[in-house]
TrEMBL record, chains A, B, C, D:
It holds the Pfam family LDcluster4. This is TIGR00725 family protein. PANTHER family: CYTOKININ RIBOSIDE 5'-MONOPHOSPHATE PHOSPHORIBOHYDROLASE, LYSINE DECARBOXYLASE-LIKE PROTEIN. It comes from the Archaea. SUPFAM superfamilies: MCP/YpsA-like. One of its GO terms (cellular component) is cytosol.
Length: 172, 172, 172, 172
């Protein structure tokens, strides 16, 4: 049976040191929960989260905008070369059973939007900056489909997704 | 020479009567400015804007998620069948020199995000509801690349885009 | 009512002089038939076909791989900036009621494949070289969905599409 | 370090019994070579190849056209939900260091085209039917970028990719 997949989204370039640390912990907790880490496969939050997962026995998937493998960070076990540019944000968000946001700019907001549209379980890391802090705890539109949950640390973030996911499975 | 292209984004299903009226006026003003109206080609704001343009001598392009022409509203002169689902939001936003938002849910927010990322001129219609009112006047992330301008009516919205576009052209 | 859309596909770089001439005639005949010319918006066959259409009063649409308008050839009335790279081949093929191939390499073959998969009316220009000559008159797979019709000149190519399209419409 | 990724392409619906058997063996040999099996994640050849890999300790990735996980076959360890329809064929082909074709219709031909365009190592299984037999040993266009190699069995197919890949790496 397929393992749970968690997408980690956030800063690429101009990543803060703090967001890197938070992302590393998120990757580590995903690995410890035996879930698969999915991300956009590039630098910053994506790279730190992949490293956190790899150094703790996890599995990592990088879904990159480019067509060539070489653009992916070195901590990706599996690289999906989309070649479709930033429209790959849709695929990163759709390919997680849950989503964790660490900081992030507008690309991360787009991924939050896709997750919200498809009613994913979404968690924003408190204090990680960027759109995670701007939109954490809020609804992205007036339809109020799915609130973005705020988590105080990586352990809680992964826990929220595991619980909601298992509840959801029970009701299928 | 290519004409100016303006993307109109907003509600699809569950469009309010008010947003339809605003969208019609936006389409009409785009036609009067001899610009091409680009949109997602479906119902609600997209349909009303296309109708407004067509009834005033304009040209309309619908970029639809589906692979078959039949999904487009009847006011599209040209239909682009993407077949890539809602990832077509990227293409709608990228294919406008400027963007006008009328109401809208999270799909519209995603389009605003893409426009913001690629530094388009973005205008939100005041009082049109939805994400146009939620995000009008704001920056979508902490990088503050491009403020979403609020326009009080359709004439002003198109005027803002024309002026900014011509200024931008002068500096190329 | 929407006009008929015909996608012209073929060589980009390394276009032969002969293919350019054929493409120009194809664009001209599409314009004379009052259909809209759709293409990939770049050079070679795409540019010549657009020029042929424009110099004969037609309307042209370029669906480009890039995210910026500036990559399109100067004969495109409307530019669709997909930003999804060569996956835009799917959109070029899907957005034609019929398809005309002039020469072409493997990118053109991919577009023929998409047209064949979605049962479009497909015509290959005889003597235009490339995949148009390699696959003209053939079925692309063993399912034999739709034979690629060979046309001796541009007039015949457009005629074949008009006739098949009107027959198809009668049976809807 | 990332493991080698091999994309297996071929029939979905209407898969022959023979192609299923061949696909199973291909999956098995990919697992034995400790490479990752990438595929389109649906039925027929994709499902059999995944099963062959899973029953021999391998890792499998399914890149599906849909937006929901449930469309993937049960032998996928990791599911990438693209939501972009059959344009995902581009991603399946781009995400393999090498490609193995087992039977297949026009969708498989499109994937061969993408592999050919991006100069992947491509192998067609002899006697597996469909486009694998139609195009095996041939060049897809007149540019003759990359010949599609014919392999007599699954062991040879994987061997060809391993050898060519290691040669290619040595020259980087």
């Amino acid at each position: 049976m397929r393992k749970l997949q968690i997408s980690v989204i956030g800063y690429n370039k101009d990543c803060t040191e703090n967001a890197r640390k938070v992302a590393y912990e998120v990757g580590k907790e995903i690995a410890k929960a035996e879930a698969v880490l999915v991300c956009g496969g590039l630098g910053g939050v994506m790279e730190s989260a992949c490293r956190g997962a790899k150094e703790n026995g996890g599995t990592t998937v990088g879904i990159i905008p480019q067509e060539e493998f070489s653009y992916a960070n070195q901590y990706c076990d599996i690289v999906v070369c989309t070649g479709i540019g930033y429209a790959r944000d849709f695929i990163v968000a759709s390919s997680g059973d849950g989503i964790i946001a660490v900081g992030g700019g507008v690309g991360t907001l787009i991924e939050l939007g896709v997750g919200y549209m498809t009613k994913k379980i979404i968690v924003a890391m408190a204090g990680s900056g960027g759109v995670a802090d701007m939109y954490g705890g809020k609804f992205l539109d007036e339809r109020k489909r799915a609130q973005i949950v705020i988590a105080k640390d990586a352990k809680e973030a992964v826990q929220v997704i595991l619980e909601k996911y298992h509840n959801w499975q029970k009701h299928q």
